[in-house]
Specification:
The protein is of the alpha/beta class. About 30% of the residues lie in helices and about 20% in strands. Helix 2 packs across helix 3 and helix 6 packs parallel to helix 7. The chain is globular, with a radius of gyration of 24 Å. The chain starts with a helix and ends with a helix.
Length: about 650
């Protein structure tokens, strides 16, 4: 049977199930990554499993999110992560070494391997030919302990690339094109597999930009073949031994296919407030720009930075523009410093940030009131920048640099001849900021600061699940809405009781108090509830507040899994019109809940206030149903081990 590339890797790692779209499968995980925003909780959960040492081929913990240490909390979390990873066989990437996805691509990614990361942009690794999937921290903790990762077998969507990018057109414009074609929910339940003659024209960092923002489509992951371009990249990184050629069979059959002609794309921008609100830069016009931010796991590679430096060289940033640049890794930053490109950036007036996520997650550099901010990032959700009134546009590094000089949104094609940047034959490989785990973990003492609190656990599902409708929200509610992730709250990612006080407050400031006053209840959501970041805190904070279930028109994949992991029912309205019928304060009940769940997919929710019944759909495997009965994955694992 002819197979796609993704199917080949899945088949090689298949533990259980059949590779039929819609069926639950489980796969063996070779590598994991965590970052400090999600990592503290993941390692607390790993410790709760009682496993001495990770069982993956390589697991790496990165410090790249909470690096603004305005109080003791971040530093305490960092010390906890460093010591707990040292004890349990996990490599530790120190703060300053770089953004997890950039460093993983440079130093640890291996074509054909599976990678599970507690960050939604883990699919970046697909640019290297990995099956790289973002998940909640608990799923990553289970994988580190040797457990399989369970997922619904996705459909495989072939994105066939033809032609070649014209000067000043970039990989960012490619993925924005795909987002415009498919929308932010167009990849749900799918793996995007890139094929065609156009693939060979794209470098590994360009491919990684495309797979990175596949997360914005809601896709399970995205993947490119591993070819001679991959070989050259790994050789330049001093990792030629990790190369394996990989491609789909020529006669394989895809579930769906779209075509993208690279030659027809022009510079694009995602307008506020969604990554799929895409329009040509030339059509948007020369709007005044207040801030430009260049970096993030999407566009912080060596090639990206060199192109930015070439545009800025000999110029001066417009006096009305604040320009900040964050190279993606210590490798990139050091190479820029050595070849003079960093000096060109500084001379032009750019402010150089450390190699970290920074502004992308609202950690510093929040723009002024009503600002227009151009960012080379992957998300422009309202308020994510730290300024609710800001208008954030997602653009390529070339558009960003040209606009920083001009002071207005600028099509870089107006600058004349595009700079030529070739991939180096040899990257500067220095892993001195990666700490190997202790040989004897038993001797390591794990350091826990006062900010680290126990994570909440659910209880066994009762016969009747009851509660009020506590909040009713619109379509495309993100995990940034559910559990805000700004500079003030990120230091408390290991303190769920504190975070819960801010749960869903961007939608309703009174929600936490109402949830506590009523002893929990239900959330009513629209389409694509829980899109965005993989942060399981968006399930843990509602769990702490007593949320029993979420009734929505549809869910984002990772958030639905995180809800089930926490023992919270994710129910989809069979009739979307029922959403309109429920008011805040309505008393809801699910009678004979365990029996209903066991009987099938349809769950009857009664509105006791209005005397009505709603049919909802629970999309869960038999294993996930057992997890819901037990009150979540941790309880389920404990029951299995008894």
């Amino acid at each position: 049977m002819a197979l796609t590339l993704a199917q080949k890797i899945i088949k090689e790692h298949l533990v259980s199930g059949e590779m039929k779209a819609g069926e639950e499968i489980s796969i063996r995980i070779d590598q994991t990554l965590t970052q400090d925003s999600t990592g503290t909780m993941a390692y607390l959960q790993f410790e709760a499993m009682g496993i001495d040492k990770v069982k993956t081929k390589k697991s790496v913990a990165y410090i790249d999110h909470n690096t603004i240490q305005s109080g003791f909390e971040n530093a305490d979390d960092h010390k906890y992560i460093q010591t707990v990873t040292n004890k349990h066989g996990i490599y530790f990437s120190r703060p300053g070494n770089g953004i997890c996805h950039q460093v993983q691509l440079e130093r640890f990614g291996v074509p054909g391997m599976t990678l599970l990361g507690s960050d939604s942009h883990t699919p970046t690794g697909g640019g290297l030919g990995m099956l790289a999937i973002g998940a909640g921290g608990l799923d990553v903790a289970v994988a580190m302990g040797g457990g399989a990762y369970y997922i619904t077998m996705p459909k495989i969507l072939n994105v066939k690339l033809t032609g070649k990018l014209r000067p000043w057109v970039t990989a960012k414009d490619v993925i924005l094109t795909v987002l415009r074609m498919l929308s932010v929910k167009g990849g749900v339940g799918k793996i995007l597999e890139y094929t065609g003659e156009g693939v060979a024209t794209l470098s590994v960092p360009e491919r990684a930009t495309i797979t990175n923002m596949g997360a914005e489509l809601g896709a399970t992951t995205s993947i490119f073949p591993s070819d001679e371009t991959t070989h050259a990249f790994l050789k330049a990184q001093g990792r030629e031994q990790d190369y394996t050629p990989l491609a789909a069979d020529s006669d394989c059959i895809y579930d769906e296919e779209i075509a993208v002609n690279l030659s027809e794309i022009e510079p694009l921008a995602a307008q506020p407030h969604s990554p799929d609100n895409v329009l040509e830069v030339s059509k948007i016009g020369k709007i005044k720009v207040d801030q430009v931010a260049i970096g993030s796991c999407t566009n912080s590679s060596y090639a990206d930075m060199m192109k930015v430096a070439a545009v800025l060289k000999g110029k001066t940033v417009h006096p009305d523009v604040s320009l900040v640049i964050a190279p993606g890794s210590k490798q990139v930053l050091t190479m820029l410093a050595q070849n003079g490109a960093l000096a060109d950036m500084v001379a032009a007036g750019a402010r150089i940030l450390e190699s970290a996520c920074g502004p992308c997650i609202g950690m510093g550099q929040s723009p002024k009131t009503n600002a227009i901010s151009l960012r080379t990032f992957n998300r422009n959700f309202e308020g994510r920048s730290g300024t609710v009134s800001a208008q954030v546009y997602l653009v390529s590094p070339e558009v960003a640099a040209a606009s920083a000089i001009a002071g207005v949104l600028t099509d870089p094609r107006e600058l004349g001849e595009a700079p030529t940047v070739t991939m180096p034959e040899k990257f500067l490989a220095n892993d001195n900021m990666v700490v190997a785990p202790a040989e004897n973990g038993a001797e390591v003492e794990v350091v826990r600061g006062p900010n680290i609190k126990p994570f909440p656990l659910n209880t066994k599902m009762p016969e009747t699940v009851t509660g009020k409708s506590l909040i009713k929200v619109e379509d495309n509610i993100t995990t940034d809405h559910i559990m805000p992730s700004n500079a003030k709250l990120l230091p408390f990612r290991s303190n769920i009781p504190h975070l819960a006080e801010f749960c869903l407050t961007p939608c309703d400031p009174e929600f936490p108090a109402r949830a506590k006053a009523n002893g929990g209840g239900f959330i009513i959501g629209g389409v694509n509830y829980g899109q965005g970041s993989s942060r399981e805190h968006a399930a843990l904070a509602p769990l702490y507040l007593g949320i029993k279930g979420v009734l929505a028109k549809s869910f984002a994949r990772i958030h639905m899994a995180n809800l089930i992991n926490s023992g919270i029912l994710p129910l989809v309205f069979k009739n979307e019109a029922d959403y309109d019928d429920i008011d805040m304060g309505d008393e809801l009940a699910i009678n004979d809940a365990p029996a209903q769940i066991a009987a099938g997919d349809e769950i009857i929710v009664e509105n006791l206030t209005k005397g009505k019944k709603y049919v909802t759909i629970l999309t869960a495997s038999d294993r996930q149903k057992e997890m819901l009965y037990a009150g979540g994955l941790i309880n389920y694992i404990k029951m299995q081990n008894q």
